[in-house]
Amino acid sequence: MATLQIREALRRAMVEEMRRDDRIFLMGEEVAQYNGAYKVSQGMLEEFGAKRVIDTPISENGFAGLGVGAAMVGLRPIIEFMTWNFSLVAYDQVVNSAAKIYQMSAGQYPVPMVFRGPNGAAENLAAQHSTSVDSIYAHFPGLKVVTYADAADAYGLLKAAIRDDSPVCFLESELTYGMKGEVPDEEYIIPLGQANVRRPGKDISLITWGKQVFVCEAAAKQLAAKGIDVEVVDLRSLRPLDHETLFRSVTKTGRCVITHEGHLFAGVGAEIAARVQEACFDRLEAPILRVTNRDVPQPYASNLEKLVMPTADRVVEACEKVMGR
Amino acid sequence: MNLPSTEGPDRPATAAAMGLPEKSSLPPVSAESLLALYREMVLIRRLEEIAARAYTQRKILGFCHLYIGQESVAVGAAASTRGDYWLAAYREHGHALAKGTSARAIMAELFGRSGGASRGLGGSMHIFDKEHDFLGGYGIVGAHVALASGIGWAIQYRNEGRVCVCFFGDGATHQGAYFEALCLAQLYKLPIVFICENNFYAMGTALHRQSAVTDMSIRADGVGMVRDSFEGFDVELVRERVARAADFARSGAGPVMLEIRTYRHRGHSMSDPAKYRPEGELEQYRRDYDPLSITRKRLSQDFGVSEETFEEIRLSVESECEDALQFAEASPIPDPAALYNFTYAPQLTSMATGNDAPVFRLDAIQAERNGGKA
After folding, report:
1. pLDDT score at B368
2. Which residue is closest to B146 within chain A, CA to CA?
3. What is the per-residue pLDDT for B108?
4. Which of A44, A270, B133, B273 has the fewest CB atoms below 10 angstroms from its CB?
5. Superfamily name and number for A2-183
6. Is B352 on the interface with A (CB under 8 A)?
7. How far is B20 from B23, CA to CA, in rounded Å?
8. Is A238 part of the contact surface with chain B (CB cutoff 8 Å)?
9. B264-277: pLDDT as tens digits
10. In this model, does residue B373 exceed pLDDT 90?
11. Looking at the complex, does the CB of residue B119 fall below 8 Å from at least one CB of chain A?
12. Between A65, A102, A279, which is nearest B177 by CB?
């Protein structure tokens, strides 16, 4: 068992897959000579050469489209967005091309590729570098949307994403690239669509994903001290969604709080709340609450940013509320 | 009257100067090969006319963009690149046909039937035919040009010795995706022939109202790309000039931008009466610049092709189109049970489609709760 930074776990996944399958290449801004803006692809140019680890100009729309075209004719691109914020200029290629071509062609052209990069807020990056894109990609059938909390999941889920025959949006985080975690030495894959119960509990199902998992674990500790036993469910992938684990948990606890980065309005939490009430209505003992970013563009100043984020304190507050305290 | 396709004070003969070969590797046309190109153009024209009729009968729905008037471009290009990868925009019935897709598969797709090229899922704008490396029709103007860079990338990556031919209209050249695709293609020296079919109207907006330059190849200069520009009403000329570009791209020298000036006889789509054209313009194009008439004249004058032969072609095209129409009429509508089959590649389909039916897994949970009784 090795202790790896998340960036190293992601790199290990890519490197192993690229050794296994020469149809895979990594393309994006600064991924090759610069070793990646966040050093995720460090050393990969050296191992795989300029044919398979490719620096691009600053043209997300162009190289996202290039990836889709290459995938259509049998390659398996990994397209890195320096941040998912920049994917918005390539939104058309992800949504109108990658997500739809398999269907438009009646299955003649699968698009086996991964779009990956950091998502959501880091710190003090202000409005245009802090977007959570979860809901805007999860909206579309044809895309898979995957994220992770720790290094072990980062490795296993990225391997699954790379091997998937459909386009996968893989959401990472600047803030946790350096976070260390244990990763088993033997190769493994975590199938997409399997949620992970990070902490079993009997009172409340706390549904989350991505680095918000750690916020939930901190909140769960605080709540335990107050005698509230929270079950933390990391969905891992928003599409496909593991309904079974989700419903099983809420059926057991009878209470559900959903927390994620990004905005409340039309966020993924709204979709999950709708599905939970539909499936578990007769088991719910309290309304489903959501804790997300405040409904404003991200501010720069530290104090304001802290107000915006779905912090552990806010999660605790919501959990106490559904417990009637 | 000055016709737009023949205008252009600054259309320098740049091709040779930029390093395109003086002549392509293709042999000159023979009576037989030119006749085959002529037949293909007649087939496209006739199939489009039948599609127009079926559209007015509401047998074809949605958007339907006809290629009538531009046949020489797709057919001429196919003569030298039929074994290569092609993709086009939404006015692509003619391209698919020229590339090898059957009239049956195209007409059935327009009818939304399971026998269509895309099994009725794509429709007029999204014809795909993997067997013939026809990678689609696309409805977001300019966006598919970026896909072409990826196909070119894959060709180079695998050293296939092929080219990607990407067709788009003059209207696409103002899109960001288009410009980014050119930048990447030239930077990586990808084997792509970009073909701008300049028909002088982006929907209803005339060229001079949408662009400060009227030679649509000129923007290739900004990325350092070799280019050529010519009138495309003569299929023989298109065949030769596209072949030159394809030879260049195939050799590994990099992509080529072609502006092929052409003219559509119909409106932008079936719902467009095309009232924005100056009076007399369409009539003059139909009289003097109709690809079918030009080639027919050449065949009879220079190759001695007889009226009987033209009549035979007309009849065989008529019968092929009639067969396509009957096939489309008879082809079953898509099976509703197959609705979810093409959202995700097969490996995880069951899990993916579960998103639309969360309740079906609930049964098991409820059964468990009720002590095993459903």
Report:
1. 56
2. A65
3. 98
4. B273
5. Thiamin diphosphate (ThDP)-binding fold, Pyr/PP domains (3.40.50.970)
6. yes
7. 8
8. no
9. 999 999 999 999 99
10. no
11. yes
12. A65
